[in-house]
Amino acid sequence: MNNVTEYSPADLASYIQQGIVTLDELCNSTDGDFTAKMKLDVEEILSGSEDADFEKVMKSESIYDLQDFLNKYPMGKPEHLDAVRIKKDKLEAQPIYEVPSVAPAFEDNSEENEWKNIRNSDDLNLFLQFKEKYPNSKYTFEANKAITQIKNSEATRKKSAAILKVLIQQANSADDVSRTIVKLVRNETISIQTLIDLISKDHNILSSDACRNIIEQGILSRTDLSKCGIADDFINKMLAKAPSMTFDPARPLISIAEPCTEVYFWGIPSSGKTCALGAILSTAKSGLNSKSMIPDNNCQGFGYMNRLSSVFSSGKVCRLPGGTPVASTYEMRFELEDQENAIHDLACIDLAGELFTCMFMKDAGEELREDQEQALGTLHNILLNNRSNNRKIHFFVIEYGAENRIYNGLPQSEYLNSAAVHLNNMGLFNDNTDAIYVLISKVDKAKYEGALDQHLMKYMTKNYLGFYNNLLRIAKENNINRGKISIVPFTIGDVCFKDYCRFDTSSASKMVELLMHYSYTHRKGFFNKIFDLFR
Q1: Least confident span in 27-41, 141-155, 343-357, 398-412
Q2: What is the Cα–Cα distance from 1 to 17, expressed in whole angstroms?
Q3: Distance (Å, rounded) from C-alpha 303 to C-alpha 295?
Q4: Looking at residue 382, what DSSP letter applies?
Q5: The pTM is what?
Q6: What's 516-529 look like in SS3?
Q7: Which of 396, 403, 398, 351 has its CA nearest to residue 377?
Q8: Distances from the Cα of 121 to the Cαs of 95, 128, 146, 427, in angstroms?
Q9: Cα–Cα distance for residue pair 281/334, rounded to 1 Å
């Protein structure tokens, strides 16, 4: 209801047909966002499809077809619903064909035997195959009735699953999720099979804590999770309750020392920014792309950098780090030695997630909390008041699939649009900026055909076009990277129970290569210093 403008009339008409929402609710419970034009479009779609389906179904003699119409249009025209129900009742009242007590001699009993084998089954395909094999069977009526019952059961389970998914998303904690599920299962509002189906489709629908609570209540078992396609090492980690890495608030950051390349990571809380940084730092340390990584133990974020990078280990299941304090900004300085023995001085800056709220509130003239003032003060220190002469690269991190998630009352797109305008007005990109990237995290969730880069460009233009166009304008006005904004896909690997990951270094390795390619470099020795001077 809060995001009704994000859906097309066809989507809304489909939800009405499924009984998820009513037209009256859209009109009366959306604070005017569901406009008169949208209502006309939805009504036109509903009217056109319902009329055509009604004419078609009234020609059918199948109970399943009639029930399917009732399921599809629970809020349809009363005259249509009444006519379909009357016809369905008449068909159901017809007597079932009686089987003769004595079969004629030499009669082929294969049809009879097959029917006896499937008549008590709940497998829809068996009945459909039987009807196709014996189109004129004396058991057609009973087969249709069984199909209708199975379809109704499946439709009910799908609707229950949709409702359960919404309840899980709206819950405030793992305890709330587990209590809700236990209550719904025990009063038979949903079945355990519905819950299993939901987990099979999305291994991250439940957090590890919620899943463990449900197992302790006897609702699910380890075997159930295995049937959902979840690997044993994920289940073992979840049941063992491996601890999550937590971080202390950052010390105040006044400036960034020279010389180095400053790499800034922007993103709202839960965007995947911290995990992406941890994966990049771990891969840089591993020696896969660079010969060595030497952290600077004098930098403000030294402890944060080493703890974060220690979380990820290639190919192993690890517990993802806990959320960082949303108002903290961390500076992580280190040297990377590439395969040609050149030294790359880098400072990765994990900017406070709360900055997006701060910038929006500042522009809206709203009063900021003390921690929000401090977060904004840190940004002004390092990029305005004490801005260095270092070259700078900016990555804006966007979580794939989170376009409808609400943070502090607003969707991600609103904060991104506001931030682009605010930062440009600050003059943030006027000097020393080499490139601006959009890093899309959690792309392992993407379902697409063709090339990933083309899919992600379509995804950006569909959900974040205003923000992307603002970045393009900034790049052109400030001659950054020839006026181009590149999209970088990123994944940390297979994630399960929201908290555990089998780390895949592929994306992180490409990021390490990118950072070495564009970062400040120096070489050891007199002649190399002369070379660097001319370089």
Answers
A1: 141-155
A2: 17
A3: 10
A4: I
A5: 0.69
A6: HHHCCEECCCHHHH
A7: 351
A8: 22, 12, 9, 70
A9: 10
The pLDDT tens digits for 307-355 are: 999 999 888 899 998 777 888 999 999 999 988 888 999 999 999 988 9
Residues 222, 223, 226: CA angle, nearest 5 degrees: 90
Q: What was the pLDDT predicted at 254? A: 94
How far is it, in rounded angstroms, from Cα 225 to Cα 219? 11
Q: Quick one: pLDDT at residue 453? A: 92
Which tokens in the block code for residue 301? 């974020």
Rounded to whole angstroms, the Cα distance separating 107 from 103 reads 7
- Give 489's DSSP letter: E
Measured between alpha carbons, how far is 1 from 406 in angstroms, rounded to an integer? 12
Residue type, 123: D
From first CA to last CA, the distance across the chain in angstroms is 58
> Are 271 and 402 a contacting pair, CB within 8 Å?
yes
Residue 476: alpha-carbon gap to chain centroid: 31
Whole-angstrom CA distances from 33 to 25, 82, 240 are 12, 33, 47
Encoded tokens for 366: 């709203």
DSSP state of 242: P
Q: How far apart are CA 217 and CA 212, in angstroms?
A: 9
Mean pLDDT across the chain: 85
Contact 226, 199 (CB under 8 A): no
pLDDT of residue 351: 94
The token pair at 443 is 């792309």
Single out the residue of 224, 163, 275 nearest to residue 508, CA to CA. 275
**CA-CA distance, 427 to 49, in Å (whole number)?**
54
* CA atoms lying within 13 Å on the CB side of residue 49: 15
Rounded to an integer, the average pLDDT of 361-381 is 91
Q: Over the stretch 64-110, which tens digit does the pLDDT of each residue have? A: 778 777 767 766 787 888 888 888 888 777 765 444 444 444 445 68
Cβ–Cβ < 8 Å for 378, 352:
yes
- Looking at this protein, which amino acid is placed at residue 149? Q
* Structure token pair of residue 187: 């009063």
- Please compute, for residue 275, the number of CA atoms within 13 A of its CA located in the half-sphere on the CB side: 32
Distance CA 434, CA 335 (A): 19
Q: What is each CA distance from 44 to 12, 18, 39, 82, 307, in whole angstroms?
A: 12, 17, 9, 21, 58
Instruction: Give the whole-angstrom CA distance, residue 454 versus residue 146.
Output: 45
> What is the three-class DSSP state of 473?
helix
Q: Assess whether pLDDT exceeds 90 at residue 163.
A: no
CA atoms within 13 A on the CB side of 157: 14
- The answer for residues whose C-beta is within 8 angstroms of residue 527's C-beta and 6 or more apart is none
What is the C-alpha separation between 73 and 54, in angstroms, rounded? 10
Distance between CA atoms of residues 441 and 445, nearest Å: 9
For residue 106, count CB atoms less than 10 angstroms from its CB and return exposed for 0-12, middle for 13-18, buried for 19 or more: exposed
> CA–CA distance from 239 to each of 177, 236, 402 (Å)?
17, 5, 28
| Mean pLDDT to the nearest integer, 373-377 | 92
Is 386 within 8 Å of 436 (Cβ atoms)? no
